[in-house]
Amino acid sequence: MTWISPYPLLHHVLRLVFSEALWSLSVIAGDRPQVALTFDDGVHPQFTPPLLEVLAAEGVTANFFLLGQQVAAYPELTAQLWQQGHWLGLHGYRHRSFPRFTATELRLELIKTQTLLAQVTGQTPQRFMALRPPNGIMTPRVMTWLKAWGFRVVMWSVVSEDWRSPGIDTVVRRSLEQVHPGAIIVLHDGMIGGQDVAAITAKLIPSLRDRGYDFTSLGLALPPPRALGGQDSAQG
Ligand SMILES: [Zn+2]
């Protein structure tokens, strides 16, 4: 049976509406094609450690969009991500869609998460200025706030719907069908769908390498954060 998903169409529309977000990496001619592996909803005490083992064994740097409440609950595991050289971004404090917050509430949630990440990693909060909205849900109004506060929104270009737990082979196959140079691949290491993430990643990394892909950090694709972390007022 053919797998039909609403996501390709939805993705196309969202990409047009939120063109300021990062949806894929720029491709440099002549270089080996790069992809970014991204993991949302962590850290998780059961699902993140085996994933870290896979990444370390493969020598791959990945990217994690973390929930503040998970960072607060598992600071040592979060510190381990950082020490292993992975790139860290925000996914909100709770897993709650950003449009459900007022501007003040959302700002506080993000600051709380930044502060936790700073404590755990020994960096400044302004080091963590990139985020991915929970459930991928955004409105133009929320985008305006985030921009005014200096945040950079990162979306994705490869989505296998791993959160529905369709099976390891299905997630790998869908990811390989969608992959392209500069792809940002979204997977989940949290409560929903995280149980298979280590096994999926262990299969996906060699399959992508067989197709000529290298793995990169989003830190290389994003401009350095603004010095004051978005204290300035909204512009445009
Ligand atoms: Zn999420």
Description:
The protein has 236 residues and is of the alpha/beta class. Helices cover 38% and strands 12% of the residues. The longest helix has 19 residues, at 103-121. The chain binds zinc ion (ZN). The site of zinc ion has 5 residues, from loops.
* Average pLDDT, all residues: 90
Unreliable spans: 227-236
Which percent range fits the helix content? 25-40%
What order do the helices and strands follow? HEHEHHEHEHEEHEHE
Number of strands: 8
State the separation between the terminal residues, measured CA to CA.
Answer: 47 Å
Biggest pleated-sheet summary: 6 strands, parallel
List the helices and strands and how they pair.
Blueprint: H1 7-17, E1 34-40, H2 48-58, E2 63-66, H3 68-73, H4 75-83, E3 87-90, H5 103-121, E4 130-131, H6 140-148, E5 152-153, E6 158-159, H7 168-178, E7 184-188, H8 197-210, E8 214-215
Helix pairs in contact: 2-8, 4-5, 7-8
Residues 40-41, 91, 95, 134 line the site of zinc ion (ZN).
In brief, what are we looking at here?
The protein has 236 residues and is an alpha/beta fold. The chain has 8 helices and 8 strands, in the order H-E-H-E-H-H-E-H-E-H-E-E-H-E-H-E.
Features:
single chain, about 240 residues, alpha/beta, six-stranded parallel β-sheet, two-stranded parallel ribbon, 8 helices, about 40% helix, disordered C terminus, binds zinc ion
